[in-house]
Design goal:
By secondary structure, the chain is of the alpha+beta class. It has a single domain (about 1-70), classed as Alpha-Beta Plaits. The chain is built from two helices and four strands; from the N terminus they run βαββαβ. It has helices at about 15-20, 50-60; strands at about 1-10, 25-30, 40-45, 65-70.
Length: about 70
């Protein structure tokens, strides 16, 4: 199951947050981007419980992450 996590960060923390998120298990890719969001992470796991665990339990706990929006691909 794949999800895209749209991430808003504190201004001075974007690149550090991206580097930290890149190391998380289940995160297939993460890139800093321009626009309303500061980064987009692609999460590739087996089920929605794992997505919830990564987003709520790990990405939100990353230093500098202010908010996220999760889009689950079908």
């Amino acid at each position: 199951m794949r999800a895209y996590v749209l991430i808003q960060c504190d201004v001075d923390s974007i690149l550090d947050a991206v580097d930290e998120i890149r190391e998380l298990d289940g995160v297939a890719r993460v890139d800093a981007v321009t626009g309303k969001y500061d980064a987009v992470a692609e999460v590739d796991v087996d089920d929605t419980d794992e997505i919830r665990g990564i987003v709520a339990g790990e990405i939100h706990e990353t230093s500098g992450v202010a908010d996220t929006t999760t889009c689950i691909a079908t």
